[in-house]
């Protein structure tokens, strides 16, 4: 675990450099702060923050020079004591141009703001759409245009939006700051226009420089497009703080919170206890003792459906309902005084039944849900099928999918197949979802996938009267497993925003606490309706 965390920290430190030290230095020579410097200056001193979408874009777009951290930094943090979403374009990465993953990350930031009624602050410094990939970012529903649609929807929801134009702001991207409630601009570096001077020249023959066309003075004194101009980044960021400071209070959801208590175990104890080997059994209750407040855990039906732990607890004082995979092999009592050995990390009919009822309880009682995944999937085989595992699994998925209380998901180990779905994977709208460095995310394990794909390839070759030697089979199996195992990595998932990032397990408590605090800003909890429940 320590080695994995060391690798995680090294990767995060590299991301702080964006497109590289030389490009950060060029920013400074222009009088501009870097994307991270702007965020740190804006956030309250020594306050907590959570990064959203960290590692987005990792390993992608190599033929285009890469797009580290999707070319934009997104954090959930405090400005003047107010929890906000801050979006800061990184102009050291392709001049802040939008790659497809950049768009996805910006949409995720807006989604979090909309779900939680949080003010959103855009620190704009972008050359607009990355033209070589325009077909992957321009026309579809979840592409670039969705950003401005969300601007309008966020405004209609009464959620504050503040934009600071601190660099380029071109073409369609010009609508983002101007559709915000406040549009500020930095003199000398900030500019906003639908078409730059070269395109104006080629389109209508007019010769004009960019500053006159769309600089700070033009838009603050002539067009009225921006509200005010500021001499440098710092003064512009100070103005944002002054605006946020004046926001009035809004109604809040009253999730239960008391004085926090430290966990029973230290995080170092968790590092020593949690196995890196994904096949090795362990007791999830021991892991939870490093996360929940000491003495707060109250198990639900602890002697029934034992491959899933359902429990009420507190995390940093907040009341939560926990659904977690138990990784120990357990004995389940059956009718006729018989017992059944059940594998850890697998959902059986009894555990699915228990979880469905527990999730319903938490929704009735307005208790946020936290899912801890280390799951191989649902039980298979004739005994499970005859026992109705599909309908019991469907009942759990129904109860979870229709939940109206905030949901948070952490992938600790395995996250395979339908198990990912039932335990509130990304498709089921968790408010936040993060992976530990030990996570493995795919439709099935590398070993299982390798054997299955090998059988398919063997059958295909056999139909052509080609027989593989044992040596050829082993080589093919190794090639399949190697490629598949690369896709199991939590960084592969984070790169594609299947999760909001890879985190040190020590951050888990903070993320749950900040996530629930964010959720309190949206008091509009719908009625809990399930539709048809399988029986």
From TrEMBL:
<dbReference type="InterPro" id="IPR029045">
    <property type="entry name" value="ClpP/crotonase-like_dom_sf"/>
</dbReference>
<dbReference type="InterPro" id="IPR011762">
    <property type="entry name" value="COA_CT_N"/>
</dbReference>
<dbReference type="InterPro" id="IPR011763">
    <property type="entry name" value="COA_CT_C"/>
</dbReference>
<dbReference type="GO" id="GO:1905202">
    <property type="term" value="C:methylcrotonoyl-CoA carboxylase complex"/>
</dbReference>
<dbReference type="GO" id="GO:0004485">
    <property type="term" value="F:methylcrotonoyl-CoA carboxylase activity"/>
</dbReference>
<feature type="domain" description="CoA carboxyltransferase N-terminal">
    <location>
        <begin position="1"/>
        <end position="259"/>
    </location>
</feature>
<dbReference type="InterPro" id="IPR034733">
    <property type="entry name" value="AcCoA_carboxyl_beta"/>
</dbReference>
<dbReference type="Pfam" id="PF01039">
    <property type="entry name" value="Carboxyl_trans"/>
</dbReference>
<dbReference type="InterPro" id="IPR045190">
    <property type="entry name" value="MCCB/AccD1-like"/>
</dbReference>
<protein>
    <submittedName>
        <fullName>Acyl-CoA carboxylase subunit beta</fullName>
    </submittedName>
</protein>
<feature type="domain" description="CoA carboxyltransferase C-terminal">
    <location>
        <begin position="262"/>
        <end position="522"/>
    </location>
</feature>
<dbReference type="GO" id="GO:0006552">
    <property type="term" value="P:L-leucine catabolic process"/>
</dbReference>
């Amino acid at each position: 675990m320590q080695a994995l965390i060391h690798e995680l920290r090294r990767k995060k430190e590299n991301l702080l450099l964006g497109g590289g030290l030389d490009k950060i230095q060029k920013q400074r020579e222009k009088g501009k702060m870097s994307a991270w410097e702007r965020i740190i200056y804006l956030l309250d001193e020594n306050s907590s923050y959570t990064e959203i979408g960290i590692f987005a874009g990792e390993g992608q777009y190599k033929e285009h020079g890469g797009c580290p951290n999707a070319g934009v930094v997104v954090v959930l943090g405090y400005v003047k004591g107010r929890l906000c979403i801050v979006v800061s374009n990184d102009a050291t990465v392709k001049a802040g141009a939008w790659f497809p993953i950049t768009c996805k990350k910006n949409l995720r930031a807006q989604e979090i703001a909309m779900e939680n009624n949080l003010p959103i602050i855009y620190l704009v410094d972008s050359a607009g759409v990355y033209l070589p990939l325009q077909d992957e970012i321009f026309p579809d529903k979840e592409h670039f245009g969705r950003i401005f649609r969300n601007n309008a929807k966020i405004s209609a929801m009464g959620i504050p939006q503040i934009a600071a134009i601190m660099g380029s702001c071109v073409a369609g991207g010009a609508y983002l700051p101007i559709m915000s409630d406040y549009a500020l601009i930095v003199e000398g570096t900030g500019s906003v226009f639908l078409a730059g001077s070269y395109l104006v020249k080629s389109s209508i023959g007019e010769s004009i420089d960019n500053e006159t066309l769309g600089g700070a003075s033009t838009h603050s004194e002539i067009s009225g497009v921006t509200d005010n101009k500021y001499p440098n980044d710092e003064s512009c960021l100070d103005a944002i703080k002054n605006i946020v400071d004046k926001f009035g209070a809004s109604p809040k959801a009253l999730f239960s919170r008391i004085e926090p208590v430290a966990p029973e175990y230290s995080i170092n104890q968790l590092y020593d206890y949690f196995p890196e080997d994904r096949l090795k059994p362990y007791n999830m209750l021991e892991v939870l003792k490093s996360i929940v407040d000491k003495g707060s855990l109250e198990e639900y039906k602890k002697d029934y459906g034992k491959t899933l732990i359902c429990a009420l607890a507190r995390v940093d004082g907040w009341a939560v309902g926990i659904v977690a995979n138990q990784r120990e092999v357990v004995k389940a009592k059956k009718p006729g005084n018989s017992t059944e050995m059940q594998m850890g990390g697998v959902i059986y009919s009894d555990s699915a039944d228990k979880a469905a009822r527990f999730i319903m309880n938490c929704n009735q009682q307005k208790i946020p849900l936290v899912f801890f995944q280390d799951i191989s999937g649902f039980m298979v085989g004739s005994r499970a099928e005859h026992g109705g595992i599909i309908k019991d699994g469907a009942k759990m998925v129904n109860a979870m999918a229709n939940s109206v209380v905030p949901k948070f998901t952490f992938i600790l180990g395995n996250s395979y197949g339908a198990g990912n779905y039932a335990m509130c994977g990304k498709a089921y709208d968790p408010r936040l979802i993060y992976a530990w460095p030990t996570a493995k995310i795919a439709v099935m394990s590398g070993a299982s996938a390798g054997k299955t794909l090998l059988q398919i390839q063997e059958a295909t070759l056999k139909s052509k009267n080609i027989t593989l030697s044992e040596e050829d089979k082993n080589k093919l199996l190794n090639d399949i497993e190697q490629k598949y195992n690369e896709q199991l990595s939590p960084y592969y998932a984070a790169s594609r925003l299947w999760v909001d990032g890879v985190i040190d397990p020590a951050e888990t408590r903070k993320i749950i606490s900040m996530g629930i605090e964010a959720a309190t800003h949206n008091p509009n909890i719908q009625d809990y309706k399930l539709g048809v429940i399988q029986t």
